[in-house]
């Protein structure tokens, strides 16, 4: 591990952007396609800065994406040595899945099979689609963010699963399956002198709370962090701001 420092980051809307979420005038490179259609982009400045940073730290993407969705990404600097997909439930090492990690994750969520079935029935009765992601959690697409929030308020009182939303997407996670527990499991085998985390949503909070430094774009997230939090003011693309902050942090450390 480079300098014994980990840079642990969410992907979508933190480093990686859809064409809809990428601000106008930002030069970018397409790194993800779906059925031949351009889907995900890094800004060229993100690529430039990350290539510099990755000479000094080990990068670990941590995402709620399924394994299939994660594997659509074509990394401009090469495959990360470690990555956590499915909200920490799957581990990839140099692009290859660690099957023992998957087995351990499935064992963690097995006690929640009844809760899965009950929530799937509720969601279907409400006329919404629901599917299991990599056998580990439930995902429901809604028409818009308002519908997702309304559904979340309803389901939180009727399930032991953790209900989270991002935009129009609704997720139901077993309590042992979150980005924080995934990172804790990884740190047991890797260790690290310093962990720098970045994320943009409440799904990232369990991970952000474990970092020695946690970089976030909103006051709502910042208010939920302990003393490790760093609020970035939003003058530029969040990806650019967080990478600039990491460069400053590394300079201060002499790493």
Walk me through this protein's architecture.
With 255 residues, the chain is of the alpha/beta class. It folds into 2 domains: 2-89 and 177-253, HAD superfamily/HAD-like (Rossmann fold, 3-Layer(aba) Sandwich), CATH 3.40.50.1000; 109-173. The protein has 9 helices and 14 strands. The strands form 4 sheets. A 5-stranded parallel beta sheet has the order 4-1-12-13-14. The protein is globular and about 55 Å long. The two termini are 13 Å apart. The mean pLDDT is 95.
Entry keywords:
globular; 34% helix; single chain; 4-stranded antiparallel β-sheet; 14 strands; 9 helices
Number of domains: 2
The rough form would be described as globular
- The first-level CATH class of the largest domain is given as Alpha Beta
Percent of residues in beta strands? Answer: 15-25%
State the distance separating the first and last CA atoms: 13 Å
Rg, Å, rounded? 18 Å
What do the pLDDT scores average to? 95
Neighbour order of strands in the largest sheet: 4-1-12-13-14
Number of helices: 9
SSE series: EEEHEHEEEHHEEHEEHEHEHEH
Structural class of the helices, strands and pairings?
alpha/beta
CATH topology-level fold name of the largest domain: Rossmann fold
Q: Identify low-pLDDT runs.
A: none
State the fourth-level CATH superfamily of the largest domain: HAD superfamily/HAD-like
């Amino acid at each position: 591990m480079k300098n014994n420092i980990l840079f642990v980051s969410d992907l979508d809307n933190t480093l990686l952007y859809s064409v809809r979420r990428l601000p106008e005038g930002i030069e970018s490179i397409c790194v993800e396609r779906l059925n031949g259609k351009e889907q995900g982009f890094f800004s060229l400045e993100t690529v430039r800065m990350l290539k510099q940073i990755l000479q000094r730290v080990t990068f670990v993407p941590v995402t709620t994406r399924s394994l299939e969705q994660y594997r659509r990404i074509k990394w401009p600097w090469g495959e990360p040595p470690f990555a956590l997909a499915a909200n920490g439930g799957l581990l990839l090492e140099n692009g290859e899945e660690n099957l023992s990690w998957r087995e351990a994750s499935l064992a963690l969520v097995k006690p929640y099979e009844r809760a899965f079935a009950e929530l799937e029935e509720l969601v279907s009765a409400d006329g919404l689609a629901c599917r299991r992601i990599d056998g580990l959690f439930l995902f429901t697409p809604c028409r818009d963010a308002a519908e997702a929030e309304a559904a979340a308020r309803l389901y939180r009182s009727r399930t032991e699963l953790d209900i989270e939303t991002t935009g129009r997407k609704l997720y139901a996670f077993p309590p042992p399956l979150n980005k924080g527990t995934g990172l804790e499991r990884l740190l047991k085998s890797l260790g690290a002198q310093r962990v720098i985390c970045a994320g943009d949503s409440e799904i990232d909070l369990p991970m952000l709370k474990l970092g020695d430094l946690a970089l976030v774009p909103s006051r709502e997230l910042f208010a939920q962090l302990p003393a490790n939090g760093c609020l970035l003011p939003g003058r530029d693309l969040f990806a650019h701001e967080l990478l600039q902050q990491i460069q400053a942090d590394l300079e201060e450390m002499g790493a």
